[in-house]
User: Which sequence fits this backbone?
């Protein structure tokens, strides 16, 4: 059998146009190579290629199915995780992947899993060459903010990284930090059992090394250790310059024993406190979520001692200076003369402006003064909206504003009004601090580039169509304070593959997730009310776990869910209403529980893969064409046969 590099060269051109240029690094879960591609105009693009060799020790009795099962496991561990997180700004981006089967004497003996990603420099390389930027407090804080933001997104879709260390942290050419290498990431439900794999011991949480159950706080601990190392002149706790290699194990053991960590040598008191809490020995003493760590780092701001003792340039100063500097404005496509709106905003942002008390509603009349320029320059201050000094954002305040790309609401904001950001088609990120209580009807409807939305648990109301037609929104965590989801809340969110519902949720509105990209639904036991067509048209939906207390499946609730294969209906169910599962053409297994009294019209019409269905004695009414024309339908597996007792209603 050929060696790995020989096989890789035989696959060239990789992905149609890429060539191998040499190995960058390797680890226990694969090797990474540099690959390059040249376009028609001679421009060279570079990327990273991760290669996972799957070469099991086969016996003559082993089948190709076993090899493919191992490939599938590797795919789900790495590729599927990265696909779930695709579009998250602080996670390494995957461009493409391929599985190349390896044959010997005509028999399948293994596979090479190829993953092409963006080419970035790792934090371990930056530390090795003593990058000067990592010595600054603000750069370290920025790294913490970027990675905690990445963990918020990972944990929101139940993914635990489990191997956060400098080798898996990367910096882009724009200075952003990203989390990568999800080779041992795990789908998280509650806590993870002790028999699962762990990552680098030097950065692992004590409960992980001890073989105890662990959760998201293990990731927070590992990130805290990275921040500790950066603020401690590159040394982990109990490590120092003169420590011999033979004593490294004892230094790690001291940390894992629960001995209090020394204060990082280069951290001020505030930053040291944040890092100390993230690295607390007991999980209960750490930040409960990555969002809490993000908020703590965000509130640190710039320490007072680092601010130059000179008067800051205000927005008014900036525009005054430009009168005699036409080159700067013309370079970005602006006229030399400042518009009234520019002058108005400059006055509002100026430190010379009179302070106003917080409160009131930000209405369209005031919001309209924010300019809507078409440029996208790095220094451009107005397309990133920060609302601090208002308690509410009024109805239609920023409707149709195509210049806005991000929104951050301070802790004083209590409400986002109806259609406040309707059709803000370039709005990509929404981050609201704890204190927000209401997101009203249509607040972010039609924000087609929205990919990141963080809502705090203080939110109690999510109105109708609040996120409808946000076609790039991949996941959404519903805050714990919400009891009922509004009608058409996420209707038309075709990329929405994951929704985390709160444990206290009581009801879901009509067509709340109609035509969305949901793949799995886990309804909490408290959820006893589903609206008409709540999940209709979810073509990718494959699994539903119902609340055990649910008694009624409403009309057209799951109609058109063409990938739904199996349903376990709750035992307390009494009624299945008209069209509830119509058009579920992949449905192969269904048990109607005893206790169901009514089956509505066309409840199971066009369920072409069903072959046999049993109707319990408890049924007292069956609507017209409940199981298709005449009680039978034609399908790929033959004719559906309805079985019922002789003395039953059916």
Assistant:
């Amino acid at each position: 059998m050929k060696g790995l590099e020989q096989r890789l060269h035989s696959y060239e051109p990789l992905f149609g146009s890429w060539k191998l240029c040499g190995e960058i690094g390797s680890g226990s879960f694969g090797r990474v190579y540099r690959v390059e591609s040249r376009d028609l105009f001679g421009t060279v693009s570079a990327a990273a290629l991760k290669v996972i060799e799957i070469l099991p020790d086969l016996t003559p009795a082993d089948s190709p199915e076993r090899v493919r099962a191992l490939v599938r496991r590797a795919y789900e561990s790495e590729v599927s995780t990265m696909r779930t997180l695709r579009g998250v700004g602080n996670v390494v981006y995957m461009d493409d992947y391929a599985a190349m089967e390896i044959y010997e004497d005509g028999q399948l003996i293994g596979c090479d899993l190829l993953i092409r990603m963006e080419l970035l420099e790792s934090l371990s390389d930056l530390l090795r060459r003593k990058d000067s930027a990592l010595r600054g407090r603000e750069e370290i804080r920025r790294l913490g903010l970027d990675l905690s933001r990445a963990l918020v997104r990972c944990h929101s879709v139940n993914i635990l990284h489990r191997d956060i260390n400098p080798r898996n942290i990367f910096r882009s050419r724009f200075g952003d930090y990203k989390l990568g290498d999800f080779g041992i990431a795990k789908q998280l439900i509650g806590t993870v059992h002790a028999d699962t794999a762990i990552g680098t011991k030097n950065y692992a949480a004590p409960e992980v090394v001890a073989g105890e159950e662990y959760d998201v706080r293990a990731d927070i601990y590992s990130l805290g250790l990275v921040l500790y190392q950066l603020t401690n002149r590159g040394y982990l706790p109990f490590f120092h310059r003169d420590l011999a290699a033979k004593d490294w194990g004892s230094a790690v053991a001291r940390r894992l024993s629960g001995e209090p960590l020394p204060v990082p040598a280069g951290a001020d008191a505030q930053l040291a406190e944040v890092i100390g809490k993230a690295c607390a020995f007991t999980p209960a003493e750490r930040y409960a979520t990555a969002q809490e760590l993000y908020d703590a780092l965000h509130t640190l701001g710039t320490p007072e001692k680092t601010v130059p003792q000179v008067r800051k340039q205000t927005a008014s100063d900036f525009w005054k200076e430009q009168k005699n500097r036409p080159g700067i404005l013309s370079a970005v496509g602006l006229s030399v003369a400042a518009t009234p709106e520019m002058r108005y905003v400059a006055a509002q942002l100026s430190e010379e402006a009179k302070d106003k008390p917080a409160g009131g509603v930000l209405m369209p009349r005031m919001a309209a003064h924010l300019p809507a320029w078409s440029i996208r320059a790095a220094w451009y201050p107005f397309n990133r909206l920060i609302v601090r000094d208002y308690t509410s954002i009024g109805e239609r305040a920023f409707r149709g504003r195509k210049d806005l790309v991000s929104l951050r609401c301070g802790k004083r904001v209590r409400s986002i009004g109806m259609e406040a950001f309707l059709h803000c088609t370039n709005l990509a990120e929404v981050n609201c601090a704890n204190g927000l209580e209401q997101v009203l009807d249509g607040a972010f409807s039609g924000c087609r580039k929205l990919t990141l939305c963080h809502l705090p648990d203080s939110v109690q109301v999510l109105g109708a169509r609040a996120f409808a037609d946000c076609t790039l929104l991949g996941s959404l965590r519903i805050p714990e304070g919400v009891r009922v989801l509004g009608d058409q809340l996420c209707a038309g969110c075709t990329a929405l593959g994951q929704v985390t519902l709160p444990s206290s949720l009581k009801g879901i509105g009509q067509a709340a997730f109609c035509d969305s990209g949901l793949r799995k639904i886990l309804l909490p036991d408290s959820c006893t009310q589903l609206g008409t067509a709540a999940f209709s048209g979810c073509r990718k939906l494959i699994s539903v776990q119902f609340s055990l207390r649910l008694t009624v499946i409403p009309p057209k609730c799951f109609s058109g869910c063409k990938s739904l294969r199996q349903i376990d209906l709750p035992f307390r169910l009494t009624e299945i209403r008209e069209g509830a599962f119509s058009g579920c053409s992949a449905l192969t297994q269904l048990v109607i529980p005893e206790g169901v009294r009514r089956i509505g019209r066309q409840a199971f019409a066009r369920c072409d893969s069903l072959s046999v269905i049993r109707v319990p004695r408890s049924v007292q009414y069956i609507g017209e064409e409940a199981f298709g024309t005449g009680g039978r339908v034609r399908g790929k597996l033959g004719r559906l046969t309805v079985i019922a007792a002789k003395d039953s209603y059916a």
Notes: Residues 316-349 form one domain. The chain has a mean pLDDT of 81. The radius of gyration is 28 Å. DSSP finds 13 helices and 36 strands in the chain.
